[in-house]
Amino acid sequence: MNQFIRTQLLLGKSGMDKLRNSRVAVFGIGGVGGFTAEALVRSGIGAIDIIDNDIVCLSNINRQIFATHKTVGQLKVDAAEARLLEINPDVKIRKHQIFYTPETSAQFDFSEYDYIVDAIDTVAGKIELVMNAQKAGTPIISSMGAGNKLDATQFEISDIYSTSVCPLARVMRSELRKRKVKSLKVVYSKEKPITPNKDMSCENDLKAENETSKRRQTPGSTAFVPSVAGLIIAGEIVKELIINN
Fold first, then answer.
1. Which strands sit side by side in the sheet containing 92-96, from one edge to the other?
2. Is 31 exposed, middle or buried (0-12, 13-18, 19+ CB in 10 A)?
3. Whole-number pLDDT of residue 143
4. Most CB contacts within 10 A, which of 50, 103, 175, 205?
5. Residue 216: its pLDDT value, please?
6. What burial class does residue 153 get, using C-beta atoms within 10 Å of its C-beta: 0-12 exposed, 13-18 middle, 19+ buried?
7. What b/e string do you get for 123-148 counting C-beta neighbours within 10 Å, with b at 16 or more?
């Protein structure tokens, strides 16, 4: 039996063929990008690039789909590859163990992708992704801030210039306007970020996580907020690939 038969009932055979013949790149496979990658593979995407340089750590388990006690200590791209192949042994996966930055961007040919997912944390990397995607004419969707939030119902898809409240979106609007970028599809939340508790019992663990991920400030997060953002992104990509391809 075709494992995608229930999806095909909604998308039709031609839609499933389009997904099977598409390649999507997911930059960042943590709380948001991990759920996006898995949902795309469960939907029948035929080829996927996963890009991340992090190692699975214990504090990832609360929100990242590839993080379990079994995968702690593994490279995220390795843990993701193993799980995705268990879901669809036929999916073509390319792993890139690298942080995407302006310095590493030349290692990617954006013209070979049908869609790009920006689920990385750094503003410099996000801007570089957007500029290179638009230069190649490849559709891209960017995740704005999902940390320090508790209300998953406030996520929506919008153009970057129509966003409000989200601090990351505000910075991105400013930087993209300087670069004369006219439009960027994003997923963002209108929920005002919550100030994390200064729990001293977390201090040493957070310091260890920051050293691993090169992150200066660690936001609070949950299982049910970044996952929703990731699934919204996957749904938008599936819809667009079927309509536009």
1. 92-96, 47-51, 23-27, 115-118, 140-143, 185-189, 155-159
2. buried
3. 98
4. 50
5. 55
6. exposed
7. eebbbbbbbbbbebebbbbbbbbbbb
* Torsion on CA atoms 19, 111, 245, 100, rounded to nearest 10: 50
Question: Is 110 a residue whose pLDDT tops 60?
Answer: yes
Average predicted confidence (pLDDT) for the chain: 93
| Rounded Cα gap, residues 138 and 230, in angstroms | 19
Torsion of CA 110, 237, 28, 91, to 10 degrees: -80
pLDDT band at 197 (very low <50, low <70, confident <90, very high): confident
Q: Is the pTM of this model over 0.90?
A: yes
* Token reading at 113: 């992708």
Secondary structure (H, E, C), the chain: CCCCHHHHHHHHHHHHHHHHCCEEEEECCCCCHHHHHHHHHHHCCCEEEEECCCECCHHHCCCCCCCCCCCCCCEHHHHHHHHHHHHCCCCEEEEECCCCCCCCHHHCCHHHCCEEEECCCCHHHHHHHHHHHHHHCCCEEEECCCCCCCCHHHEEEEEHHHCCCCHHHHHHHHHHHHCCCCCCEEEEECCCCCCCCCCHHHHHHHHHHHHHHCCCCCCCCCCCCHHHHHHHHHHHHHHHHHHHC
Q: Check whether 64 has a pLDDT greater than 90.
A: yes
